[in-house]
Design goal:
Length: 125
């Protein structure tokens, strides 16, 4: 497995998101996370994305299906709605997203990061 993970300015994502993953033309998993000037926060997003990605892959959910759902969700998002596409009732990867969030919360607590503060930072981008 070959994974390239990079922290990037938030406005350089492929679409409105804080964490993103895809497989490039060389079969390298590409992962991008928004620069939050906090390595614990960035690590938590990366951890979430890694878990979600592998669980989705294992369940046979293609990255293209996830990308299309996320992009459509963002286009239809009401103003001031900070919900995540993976939390939507019709999300094709809802189970995988919720498991990744649960693990993210456990690691967040172990790092001594306040979940509410972290979540507010992530949703404010």
């Amino acid at each position: 497995m070959n994974i390239n993970i990079e922290t990037i300015p938030h406005d350089q994502h492929r679409y409105e998101t804080v964490g993103d993953y895809w497989i490039d033309e060389h079969d390298v998993i590409q992962m991008r996370v928004s620069d939050m000037k906090n390595s614990d926060y960035e690590f938590l997003v990366i951890l979430h994305e890694l878990i979600e990605m592998q669980l989705a892959k294992s369940a046979g959910i293609s990255f293209k299906i996830i990308d299309n759902f996320d992009k459509d969700y963002e286009q239809l998002r009401p103003k001031n709605d900070t919900s995540e596409p993976g939390d939507a009732p019709n999300s094709p990867y809802k189970k995988q997203h919720l498991i990744a969030t649960g693990i993210e919360k456990i690691v967040c607590a172990e790092l001594g990061v306040d979940w509410q503060t972290y979540d507010k930072t992530v949703t404010s981008l």
